[in-house]
Amino acid sequence: MEGKMPLIGEKFPEMEVVTNLGNIKLPDDFKGKWFVLFSHPGDFTPVCTTEFFSFAKHHDDFEKLNTELIGLSVDSKISHIEWINWIKQNLKIDIKFPIIADPMGHVATKLGMIQAQSATQTVRAVFIVDDRSTIRAILYYPMETGRNISEILRLIKSLQMVDKYKIVTPANWPNNEIIGDNVLNPPPATQNDIEERTKKYKGYAWWLTYQDANKADVDEAKEITGE
What we know:
By secondary structure, the protein is an alpha+beta fold. It has 7 helices and 10 strands. A 5-stranded mixed sheet has the order 5-4-3-6-7. A 3-stranded antiparallel sheet has the order 8-10-9, covered by helices on one side. It has a two-stranded antiparallel sheet with strand order 1-2.
């Protein structure tokens, strides 16, 4: 449907975008990699500056997860370049990832990043896209509240664990209040699955069983999230 905002489970829409590092074709230029496309209301604003500092500080952590970062706002390419230079000179950190210049708001509108809060600025949207170009998570924050970068890292790590081990992760993983750094089994699909679950795994009920998580994955999750 024309104008329909992309949803979790759908392919990221194809588009060519202009960035401070040159033109990029999405999602084609990132095939085989995960990427996080995130929007911010505007350059040279206080909350956005703290977010970009944090994204840059954790850039290596995203790379460990085979994940690239892409920023976006309705500011121009010149504005992005000047703001990046200001951050480098004053906050002593390099912004190594591209920022999409979207002064007409075409990309932001297509992705549902301009909402009722402002008709001219993008809210703090986050699209997490996997290595098959499928949208795996969408987050929205209001303009007044900065994002938790560690939570975005935790979410990517969790999704990659889901793909690798066919498990699900509990609240606050890897520090869940009930099962610690263990991981949950998905809900059983048949009666036979129920009997197998209770014999094979630890748990509190047939629908709430868990298993040990790979130690290397747990250690990486705790390292990248600072926990």
